Amino acid sequence: MFLAARYHPVRRPRRIRVFFKAKGLTMALDRFTRRDVFKVGTAAVLPLLGASSRPAAAKTETILPPTIGLATLGFNDYTNARLAHELEQAGIKVIQLFLSQSDSRYWKYNGRSDLSDLTPDRCRAIARAYRSAGIAIHSLGVYTNLIHPDPAERKANLAYFEAMMKVGLAMDVRVFITEAGHYHSDAPAPPVEYHFQENVWKTMVATGRQLAQLAEKHQTTILFEPFYRGFLASAKRTRLFLEEIGSPRLRALLDPANLLEINDLDEMFQQLGPWIDCLHAKDRKLHVDRGVPAGKGDLVYPKFLALAARRTPPAPLILAYVGPDTYQPALAHLRKSLPPSRP
Fold first, then answer.
1. 96 Cβ neighbours under 8 A, 6+ residues apart
2. Over residues 65-89, mean pLDDT
3. CB proximity list for 57: less than 8 A, separation 6 or greater
4. What integer pLDDT is reported at residue 135 of this predicted model?
5. Which string of DSSP letters, residue by residue, matches 95-157?
6. Which of 161, 95, 150, 151 lies closest to 126 in space, CA to CA?
7. Which of 3, 166, 172, 307 has minimal CB crowding within 10 Å?
8. Do 98 and 122 meet the contact criterion of CB atoms below 8 Å apart?
């Protein structure tokens, strides 16, 4: 009796296929069959499998030393040449010029001054005093009143701002600093503070657009500095103002001490980070109006400088609220608080 042979299908060894992102590793592991694993032992294969689970090495963040400068506003008894010489000796290579020195007294906060005798030749001579000492002029302080309720005053202040642009251009400076300005009436206080009123917002946006047109005309950039007791009272409000105008000619200068009462440092950089072109380095005690030199208030400088290094590395740090007796300790505090540089 003939018995048919039973059909036994040939079983092909199962291959263990492991997918990895690492280039070429899939091919190497695809050649292992289950039989191979038992032949050589799992100990030989596991190192290859384990390689895929190792976390990628953390990318080292580049941290470059920042540019440190100084605002000239606290050196009113110095000539420009004397101040340039002193800053050169201190190793400061950048200034924010406020035209407040003894031979260039044109500074007037929240208003305007007579610039009629500030000729292009005088402008060039002032700039030359610093540049011959190896000091660059980052920007020129204007700080006129752009929020005044009288249209004639706003028009005059815009004309003054344009005149300051011409002064800056004669010095080969194209960046200008301002606040929105402050207005306080002698009348009884209204239910809503003037700078928070709806119509004032609309008027200030219109004025900002006029300023942006002037900046475009002269190929300059305007940096708005917020302050918690003014129109630009918070980082968010400053961002909304700049966004509504929508001009690349209008940017922000962040002075964290000005917003310390309202915003924490993370909020400031989260709201304004992409807009910041310059930083002021001063300080302030909480619940106190007046600012003080860096290291004399409640601003956490190591955190401030770490955020600045990460979020706004090109923006220079300008020491403010300092004078002949205070700028060296403030500079030392700033340098001590810097995060370590990593190329």
1. 69, 70, 71, 72, 137, 138, 139, 140, 141, 177, 278, 318, 320
2. 97
3. none
4. 98
5. EEE-S-STT-----TTS----TT--HHHHHHHHHHHHTTT-EEEEEE----S--S-HHHHHHH
6. 95
7. 3
8. no
Q: Which is nearest to 317 in space by CA: 231, 257, 230? A: 257
Q: pLDDT by residue (tens digit) across 275-312?
A: 999 999 999 999 999 999 999 999 999 999 999 999 99
How buried is 204 (Cβ within 10 angstroms: 0-12 exposed, 13-18 middle, 19+ buried)?
Answer: buried
- pLDDT grade, residue 87 (50/70/90)? very high
The CATH topology of domain 68-181+192-337 is TIM Barrel (3.20.20)
Tokens of 131: 């540049």
| Single-letter amino acid code for the residue at 288 | V
Buried b (16+ CB within 10 A) or exposed e, 123-148: beebbebbeebebebbbbbbbbbbbb
Six-digit token string for 155:
């028009």
Whole-structure pTM value: 0.82
- CA gap 96, 175 in Å, rounded: 10
Domain positions in the chain are 15-54, 68-181+192-337
Burial class (CB in 10 A: 0-12, 13-18, 19+), 223: buried
101 neighbors 83 (Cβ within 8 angstroms): yes
**pLDDT by residue (tens digit) across 35-46?**
554 444 544 444
* Residue 108 CB-density burial (10 A; 0-12 exposed, 13-18 middle, 19+ buried): middle
Question: pLDDT tens digits for 229-261?
Answer: 999 999 999 999 999 999 999 999 999 999 999
